[in-house]
Amino acid sequence: MFSIKTSKGPVSFTRFVGPFINGKFQPSLAATPSRKPLLNPCTEELLENVEEAGPEDVDAAVKSAQAALKGPWKSFTGRKRRNVLLDIAQAVERNIWNLTVLEAACGKPLEEAKFDIEEVVECFRYFAGHADKLHGQNFATEDNHKSYTVRKPVGVCGLITSFNYPLVLAAWKIAPALACGNAIILKPAPQTPLSSLMLGELIAKYTDLPHGVFNVLPGGEAVGSAIVNHKDIHKCSFTGSGGVGRKVMAGAAQSNLKKVTLELGGKSPLIVFADADLDQAVEDVFGAIFSNMGQNCCAGSRLFLEKGIETDFLKKLKARVEEVKIGDTLDEAYNFGTMVDRVQFERVLNFIERAKKDGDSELLVGGKRHGDKGYFIEPTIFHNVKETAMIATEEVFGPVLSVMKPFSSLEEVLERANATPYGLASGVWTKDLTKAEHCVQELEAGVTWINCYNLCSSHLPFGGVKASGFGKDLGAEALDEYTTIKAVTIRV
Questions:
Q1: Which of 31, 41, 412, 480 could form a disulfide with 338 if both were Cys (CB 3.0 to 4.6 A apart)?
Q2: Closest Cα partner for 190 from 44, 31, 52, 329?
Q3: Dihedral sign for Cα atoms in the order 154, 155, 161, 167
Q4: Measured between alpha carbons, how far is 253 from 264 in angstroms, rounded to an integer?
Q5: What single string gives the DSSP state of each residue in 392-430?
Q6: Could you tell me which residues come within 8 angstroms of residue 237 by beta carbon, excluding any fewer than 6 positions away?
Q7: Residue 7 in 3-state DSSP?
Q8: Are 381 and 370 in contact (CB under 8 A)?
Q9: Where does the record locate the signal sequence feature (predicted)?
Q10: Is the separation of the CB atoms in 7 and 331 below 8 Å?
């Protein structure tokens, strides 16, 4: 057992001895097993050591997944798959505090972590509703031929997630994959594997999911590469950086042309018009960039304000930033946490220092480390940012907002907002619905929020365009990512 201290008292957890394969935890099969020390990013103290998997564990997990697909899992009807997903949702809900603590221990405030786990529950329940309703199409009989389509599971799916929303991102992929009858190899981010490992424990203990259908392999690049390049894995869904996403595509092409879904982050624009409810827009913009300390794929990191409102808006936004309480994320008294690890901490500080020196912007608030212990960075706003500034063109993945120079016209701001290789999300604030609809049609993004931001519902598809990737998590559209369509014609 290991224990994590919170403001409500200590919480104890089972020690995860290694990868979760074929329904149980087991020591890694790697030739030279390694144990990764996980540090609490608030204190920089040891949280737990996790034995990482190796390529040999990928092979073992794939074999157990294949056996399950050919055996008991194959016989599960849609109704039985639905019940498994509902049981997973119930198990997560009953253990919501423990899972919340595991994620808060990685630098996320308790309130945000609890919200995330609640979303995990809803995601599994949503896709449970699809499991017994999968269907193809029937076509009218023509020339003595009857035609129809059948939706089939892809097979073994490799799911690779990012560190910023550990169990949420996993659920977005696991739930539709299971609903469609696939088997899973999940590789959580090396910084945040604990909640995914606990999910394996809960599934084994509280559901009838056959052993081998769900496997969890903590580890780094070696494990991810082995998954991407494995010839018996036929689907890979990846959330992470664009650079790694390109490696995923290359590996998929060179191995077996496996299906790929990529969600690769972005440089999402926020557009506030003068007719907007400015107080609401300030609150929404604050959440768009500073929720999860900016470690958000769809973080609204470029703010465009219509000329004439910038002074008042920035005054209010600065005041809102100054209200945050930065501190230990396992203490409910604080609502703003840390970067996930030292690497990310130093990377974001380098962006900030570069922005200070380049002269391409003016610092409004923040701009430095908070305290002398832990990976805390103050929420930071630069304004009058030039379009070519590094903080305006590259994904910072931290609490840094670039307020661009004010805009004068609708067409001008749309052109500037789209002047990025990314296209994941966008936000617009206006009371003019005609103007809002024009923005919806013209913004080059997979998601557009109007007078709100970062509301992700299980029934709505989520994914980007351009360099932000392709394919969808969530919504009925996600079912297409985990199935193949077989066309059938019968002479009658």
A1: 41
A2: 52
A3: positive
A4: 18
A5: HHS---SSEEEEEPPB-SHHHHHHHHT-SS--SEEEEE-
A6: 157, 158, 159, 160, 173, 177, 260, 261, 471, 473, 481
A7: coil
A8: no
A9: none
A10: yes
* Residues 366 and 399 sit within 8 Å (Cβ to Cβ): yes
Q: What is the DSSP letter of 53?
A: P
Q: What pLDDT was estimated at residue 33?
A: 85
Using left for φ > 0, alpha for ψ between -120 and 50, and beta otherwise, residue 308 falls in: left
The dihedral region occupied by 239, where left means phi > 0, alpha psi between -120 and 50, and beta the remainder, is beta
* Residues comprising the chain, all counted: 492
Burial 21-37 (b: 16+ CB within 10 A, else e): bbbebeebbbeebeeee
User: Residue 249: helix, strand or coil by DSSP?
Assistant: helix
- Provide the CA 162 distance to its chain's centre, in angstroms: 6
Catalytic residue among 52, 112, 263, 481: 263
Active site residue 263: yes
What amino acid occupies position 421?
P
Residue 74's φ and ψ, nearest 5 degrees, are -60, -30
- By the 8 A CB rule, do 124 and 177 touch? no
Helix or strand or coil: residue 24? strand
Burial-class residue 97 by CB neighbours within 10 Å (0-12, 13-18, 19+).
middle
pLDDT tens digits, 420-470? 999 999 999 999 999 999 999 999 999 999 999 999 999 999 999 999 999
Closest CA to 110 of 98, 126, 94, 93: 98
CA angle 352, 421, 477 (to 5 degrees): 115
Q: Do residues 187 and 224 touch, judged by C-beta distance below 8 A?
A: yes
Q: How far apart are CA 438 and CA 451, in angstroms?
A: 14
Q: What was the pLDDT predicted at 16?
A: 87
- Low pLDDT (below 50) residues in the chain: none
**Helix H or strand E encompassing 163:** none
- The encoded tokens of residue 206 equal 């509280």
Q: Convert the pLDDT of each residue in 374-394 to its tens digit.
A: 999 999 999 999 999 999 999
Q: Do the Cβ atoms of 8 and 1 come closer than 8 Å?
A: no
Residues 6+ apart with CB under 8 A from 380: 352, 363, 365, 366, 367, 399, 400, 401
How many Å apart are CA 430 and CA 432, to the nearest integer?
A: 5
145, 491 in Cβ contact below 8 A?
yes
The pLDDT assigned to 156 comes to 98
Nearest Cα to Cα of residue 370 among 120, 41, 24, 144:
41
Residue 43 in contact with residue 328, Cβ under 8 Å? yes
User: Cβ of 372: how many Cβ atoms within 10 Å?
Assistant: 6
